[in-house]
Amino acid sequence: MTVDVREEGRRALEEEFFARLNFELKEKLLKELSRNEAIQELSIASGIKNKAVLEILLDAQITPGTLQALALVPLVRVAWADGKLQPKEQEAILKAATDQGIDQNHPGYDALKTWLKDPPSDTLFNTWRNYVRELGATMDKHSFGKIRAEIMLRSEGVAEAAGKFFGMGRSISASEREELDKIDEAFEILH
């Protein structure tokens, strides 16, 4: 029986190709399954059913553990509005985080520390806006209004934190006011 070396080589290459293809397909399916599970967990944690919004949140590295920290994005944006985070602004943000149950052991704390070191991107702010839109679509007007009032109050508190010295001086800068207006506009989308 003669062995065709070329035929054996072709078969070996073919088997290797399909083995690699099967491995890549398997990896892709596992990633897809893992992503779908993450979306489902995020949906349960947030109450959001809109898959497009859940995808946006997931792409921004928002997980069920860090979701709670997302509510602090407006406060951090206000603090960075003038290009520099003041120590009193940081104190106000950390107090708000603690009041919200975010301490050093909370999964969202690392995200918050990152935002305090470097300003959060416009993409993250837009992710927060999408989150607010979905909340507005799923919540009753009264509850949504309470969330709006709380976030605005805390954001204004951060803006005022570095502005006053012994109760005197400017309270909110023009750049901080601009950020506050953007935050407030996010709540105007549906209500």
Account of the protein in words:
With 191 residues, the protein is mainly alpha-helical. It folds into two domains: 1-46; 51-187, no CATH class. The protein contains nine helices and no strands. Helix 4 packs antiparallel against helix 9 and helix 8 packs antiparallel against helix 9. It is elongated and about 85 Å long.
Could you list some keywords that capture this structure?
single chain; 191 residues; mainly alpha; 2 domains; 9 helices
Written as H for each helix and E for each strand, in order along the chain, the element string is HHHHHHHHH
**How many strands in all?**
0
- Share of helix among residues? over 70%
State the helix count. Answer: 9
Question: In short, what is this structure?
Answer:
The protein is 72% helix and 0% strand. By secondary structure, it is an all-alpha fold.
Tell me the layout of helices and strands:
Blueprint: H1 5-46, H2 51-59, H3 67-70, H4 73-79, H5 87-99, H6 107-117, H7 122-138, H8 141-161, H9 174-187
Helix pairs in contact: 1-2, 4-8, 4-9, 5-8, 8-9
